[in-house]
Specification:
- The radius of gyration is 31 Å and the shape is globular.
- Helix 15 packs antiparallel against helix 16.
- The protein is built from 16 helices and eight strands.
- The longest helix is centred in the first third of the chain and has 34 residues.
- It has 511 residues and is mainly alpha-helical.
């Protein structure tokens, strides 16, 4: 009887206020109402203040004439251009700096991060000093250094430094040749894109076959050897042709072709390292001669030639030793094959269809250079500062990622007989990327947002052009600030989405 009374009695119902679920919903509704009321008050207060000042809102100002100049744009610009074109010009300038800066910061950062862990005492200390110095100096101060102390201290226009390939450097920036492709060149560009995709497909397929069978397919190995010989012939011909600028007898087409053929033939023999060493010596010698002639024109030519030759011999010797330490092995990925596919086929099409890609080299006139493309010192200083500053932080991310990889992985790679470079490339870095990518995304976002500091040195990026000149002329503060904020938010979200996708590709798959 007592049990029946217990089962028939219902538990007492608590108050709704004491129910944690109901109480949580009430709190969220109150907070949401407070936030909506806050923003509503801001909007109403702003509208009342604008009405009191007889100011209107709207984006119709974007279709008015801007009436000001922009020193550097990627699109045609004049005083009759509209404000939306000013917005586009500033946006493109911001994206240009961000893309170039991210590219160089990634390369420098990875090199420094690996160098800081080097077993070589000098290399590790140099990397440490660089990282600890650069990342503790404010970025704005570094931008001032590159702009005022380095680029503005360059020689005047008439005393410009001449670099290889017709590049001039002076206090007005860097002048580079301007490419002038004809109508047929578009087919070469299309062929380059298709060949690039084909080279990636070949690499993926060959790697999968090697994973399944333990070696690359025989057709890939044979094609790689032929491609290696063709690439060596091209490099040898180029080396002899460049040497011909100093020693005309060696620059004759027949002599250059014969020299390239001899070097290509050496790739099938045990003398393969000497062919690579000679090409490295010749190319570095010629490049150094042109570089030193532009920087030290007051020195005698003999001194420059001998100095460049000694440096070139050092580069050639290091290349010879490196190739000798890595003998030809069919188990290694054939690098020459994708290079030949990507570069050789478009080049062959270039000659077959008669396409032409001319370059307009800048020429010094009375007061300035005419022709070519002029990169203003503001752009160069901003790219230098952002890349060098961000690289210091990326280097620390790389160092941390490599440290996160278990030491047992390195010992296992050593037990397989892999050399230090192969251990780093095939074992350590792929595992470290899972740790490196998330903080690397933050550094990319920081570099993009820090590009707004270009306004301090006069670079016409988005903040300078749109939030500076456009806002001052139109007085549309709300619209201009909202558009600028939307741009940086969109760039940040797109960058994060891409890096998250890449992080998912390299993430460790657990079962």
């Amino acid at each position: 009887m007592a049990m029946q009374e217990t089962l028939g009695t219902r538990a007492p119902r608590s108050s709704l206020v004491n129910d944690p679920v109901i109480r949580g919903i009430i709190y969220q509704v109150l907070v949401a109402a407070a936030v909506i009321a806050f923003f509503g008050w801001i909007i109403l207060n702003t509208a009342q203040n604008l009405a009191a000042q007889n100011k209107t809102t709207g984006f119709d100002f974007l279709f008015r004439t801007a009436g000001f100049d922009i020193s550097f744009t990627l699109i045609p610009w004049s005083r009759t251009s509209l404000y939306w074109e000013a917005f586009l010009a500033g946006l493109l300038n911001t994206l240009l700096v961000a893309v170039i800066g991210i590219f160089f910061a990634t390369i420098i950062g990875f090199a420094l991060g690996i160098a800081r862990l080097s077993s070589n005492w000098l290399i590790a200390r140099v990397a440490t000093v660089y990282i600890e110095t650069i990342r503790n100096i404010p970025l704005l101060l570094q931008l001032f250094f590159w702009y005022f102390a380095v680029l503005k201290a360059m020689p005047a226009v008439r005393d410009s430094f001449l670099l290889p390939l017709g590049v001039y450097v002076n206090q007005r920036g860097i002048m580079v040749p301007k490419p002038l492709p004809d109508h047929e060149f578009i087919w070469v560009a299309v062929a380059f894109g298709i060949c690039l995709l084909a080279a990636i497909a070949i690499g993926v397929w060959a790697t999968r076959q090697r994973t399944l069978t333990g070696h690359y397919p025989a057709a890939i190995v044979l094609a790689a050897r032929i491609a290696n010989a063709i690439v060596m012939f091209a490099l040898g011909y180029l080396a002899f042709a460049l040497i011909g600028t100093l020693l005309p007898a060696l620059g004759q087409p027949a002599v250059a072709a014969l020299g390239g053929a001899v070097l290509a033939g050496l790739t099938f023999t045990a003398l393969r390292p000497y062919a690579g060493g000679f090409v490295a010596f010749a190319l570095s010698w010629i490049v150094l001669v042109f570089l030193l002639q532009g920087m030290f024109a007051w020195l005698p030519a003999v001194v420059l030639y001998v100095g460049a030759a000694l440096l070139g011999l050092t580069v050639g010797w290091l290349t010879l030793v490196r190739i000798s330490d890595t003998p030809a092995d069919d188990s290694k990925f054939p690098t020459a094959l994708p290079i030949l596919v990507v570069a050789g086929i478009p080049l062959l099409l270039y000659y077959l269809i008669g396409a032409e890609l001319a370059f307009e080299v800048p020429e010094l006139q009375r007061f300035n250079f005419r022709g070519g493309v002029q990169l203003p010192p503001e752009l160069v200083a901003l790219v230098f500062g952002l890349a060098i500053y961000t690289a210091a932080f990326i280097a620390e991310n790389v160092r941390g990622g490599i440290r996160a990889v278990s030491k047992g992985q390195t010992e296992a790679a050593q037990s397989l007989g892999l050399k230090e470079g192969d251990r780093l490339r095939l074992v350590i870095i792929p595992q470290a990327m899972r740790v490196i990518v998330p903080p690397l995304t933050s550094q990319y976002l920081n570099l993009t947002k820090n590009s707004s500091l270009g306004a301090a040195i006069g670079y016409p990026e988005l903040v300078n052009v749109f939030m500076g000149t456009t806002l001052n002329q139109t007085g549309k503060a709300i619209e201009v600030v909202a558009l600028t904020m939307a741009v940086y938010l969109t760039i940040s979200l797109l960058t994060s989405a891409f890096m998250n996708w890449y992080n998912g590709r390299v993430a460790l798959v657990e079962r």
